[in-house]
Amino acid sequence: MRATAVVLFLMQALSQAWTARAQGPAQEAGSAPKLNLMIVDGDGAINNIRQRTAREPIVQVEDQNHKPVAGAVVVFLLPDHGASGVFANGSHTLTVVSDAQGRAVAKGLKPNNVQGQMQMHVTASHNGQVANATITQTNAITAAAGAAAAGAGISAKLIAVLVIAGAAAAGGAVAATRSGGSSTPAVTPITITPGTGTVGAPH
Hints:
about 200 residues, alpha+beta, Immunoglobulin-like, 2 helices, elongated
């Protein structure tokens, strides 16, 4: 009886071990691969709020082996307040499906007129896996416009200085003329001295 019990115990233990070993690889094989979301372009861009132009964000969806994932659903989300913008559909949200290279482009992005930094949240999903990323951009008056304005200010100041200097020079010339700056010949007085007359006898 004891030998039979030991054999049955060993058989059950072996059966459980084989079952666990068989289920382990099956569970690993059934698990979905990890999803990665890479920012290709648009992060750190400066958007021109005067011309309502912006850098279109581009992301790439990859698997755990860094291979592109096509057909992933990518959602771009802009802030509701402050520095923000809208997409081509006039909304703060845009949904794009990644192409054969795993890329998704947020086309038609237009910044609003609020200056400052904005953060765009991006979410990609595929086969139950989700990946997130954040793209940071800045809405501002472009540096070129600011430089032009600064240059215009410098030019205006330079012209003003030149005009003042010219006026000062002209005034100095007039003052010099009036005060004898251009030499006028001195008038020498003429002195007449009468001579000594001689009186003689009549002829």
